[in-house]
Amino acid sequence: xxxxxxxxxxxxxxxxxxxxxxxxxxxxxxxxxxxxxxxxxxxxxxxxxxx
Amino acid sequence: xxxxxxxxxxxxxxxxxxxxxxxxxxxxxxxxxxxxxxxxxxxxxxxxxxxxxxxxxxxxxxxxxxxxxxxxxxxxxxxxxxxxxxxxxxxxxxxxxxxxxxxxxxxxxxxxxxxxxxxxxxxxxxxxxxxxxxxxxxxxxxxxxxxxxxxxxxxxxxxxxxxxxxxxxxxxxxxxxxxxxxxxxxxxxxxxxxxxxxxxxxxxxxxxxxxxxxxxxxxxxxxxxxxxxxxxxxxxxxxxxxxxxxxxxxxxxxxxxxxxxxxxxxx
Lengths: 51, 267
Prior knowledge:
The complex is a heterodimer.
Chain A: H1 7-46
Chain B: H1 2-10, H2 12-44, H3 58-85, H4 88-120, H5 128-149, H6 153-167, H7 170-180, H8 200-266
Helix pairs in contact in B: 2-8, 3-4, 3-5, 3-6, 3-8, 4-5, 4-8, 5-6, 5-7
């Protein structure tokens, strides 16, 4: 596909979008994993067994 | 009936159950819709007679702009839920939405600039639409920063709900800025009286991308809401554990203090 003389702007826009959305998704996954780990550790200490 | 259903779905325990089941399906649907949308954008949509290939930027710029405004609207409704009903899930929803809305607003601003340089000859103008979108991004940043400043989530919830509702004044300004002022940004071309001005060969792929971004945004929001509920449980358990340790230390000092006094008296 020939994007013409403005290819850099088009590819740049899509690359930036992929970077931000990728960051959002990875950030969300890592954050939830960290909270689950912290919760498991705390429940082990306090004896709280709620799911 | 609807009220009962709403209360059932919005109960944090029920929310964790139904959102846990729905999130993987929504994530799969988002991936499928995005793949289909990108295929249409890159291989089916014809170049525009004026913009040429640069029109392809619009297929991420417009959905991102929609989501930036959509999430702020959702946050404003949540703010009402926090202030009027003090519903715990309303605050959770608001907090989870802010970074997602900010990210999509940033995408809108950057992709708009990258489209503007070849089309308008400049990355930025202080046009009413562009400026009001920048203000929206700054409000999002302010809300996120305020959340990080106030440690107690209940105190933060009320302050941020008020700030969110004040910032909601910007939403109609964003929507109608192109009608109220003479702007370089083009007027509404999808939702307007008399129908869309876009050719169907370009309009339907654009609507598909808007749908794909919306499903992705909602999926991320539900997932982040689940994380926020877990974060609050971690906070409660941490405080409970600290209190337990404090109580243990206090008991230990009561037990040991008579001996200490004896030692002190004897000295």
